[in-house]
Description:
alpha/beta; two-stranded antiparallel ribbon; 352 residues; six-stranded parallel sheet; Rossmann fold
Amino acid sequence: MLRFVYEALPARVLFRDGALEELPAELARLGSRALVLSTPEQRSLGERAAALLGVRAVGTFDQARMHVPIETARAACAEVRRLSADCCVAVGGGSTTGLAKAVALDLGLPILAVPTTYAGSEMTPIWGITEEGVKRTGRNVKVLPRSVLYDPLLTLSLSPGLSGTSGLNAIAHCVEALYSEAANPVISLVAEEGIRALSRSLPRVARDPTNVEARAEALYGAWLGGTVLGAVGMALHHKLCHVLGGTFDLPHAETHTIVLPHAVAYNAAAAPEAMRRIAAALGVEDPAQGLFELARSVGAPAALEDIGMKADAIDRAVELAAANPYYNPAPIRADGLRKLLRNAFEGRRPEP
Ligand code: NAD
């Protein structure tokens, strides 16, 4: 029998090539003294955004880093206070959006996000802050960006490597939404469409990173991935990636890409309807094998060993991933997790 709860999050989304030009008009809805955030690598994009805003940009802060170190969050908050900023503009990937969220959590400033990867953080009320090597996360609607400008032209510079892995990160949100404890008909439709758009576009982006149409379809899929991540809880795959990223400092998008086919294989027998929908969206028979092959087709790494994990970390990861109970379609068992991680560590094909 159909039973579900559906709750929509408030979000304004403007999607078009060249959408960055809309920044001044969008900002006028939120504030008049913006602090523009970026990573050091995307400083020039931050400066371009500030130039577009003219006097409405009171400063730029280019120190965003992966997993939001608390020191960086405190430094950004100090800049906000010093400059009397009344909103943050986050131009960049999940790390930059994450920094804006940490500021919003502390000071309540509204966020205008201009995403340039496929991570999807801009559509979620999920924040994360890392202190002394431990990443705390939580949900709070005050960190949800009020306005999001999606401009496919800004993704043309995303390297082929990060394009593929960031896109598979977005697919991971869609996959786990389909077997989420809170799965509901609307979000499942969005998730299926997200997998379809990303699996079609990512190989085209890998072949030609300057293909604007493929870039637009991938960014569209990323929006859908972020939407489902913000709407329903995730499961084993996200838990494992959180443990691997947080404890062993593995890169976010690559870790998601490597683990996903194995997590899907682990859950396959326990979530047949979700598997049918994932396979249909990918256009394959077996969703775990299909995801493994999609990752190969975009040139992504296959083994956790190749992105910096050590073999003796597997036991600790199993221990952490099995420690606190959380929802997952298949029961969490240490022996199953060890096999999953061993296969992901060595870059083998997923096994049921
Ligand atoms: P990222 O933001 O760390 O970006 C990686 C690198 O690519 C950075 O140097 C960045 O400046 C650069 N970059 C980004 N876009 C670019 C572009 N278009 N052209 C050239 N360079 C570009 O990577 P990410 O994968 O987007 O984000 C990962 C972080 O986001 C992790 O900390 C993860 O936990 C978090 N995240 C949070 C949520 C959430 O809902 N809270 C969702 C997804 C990811």
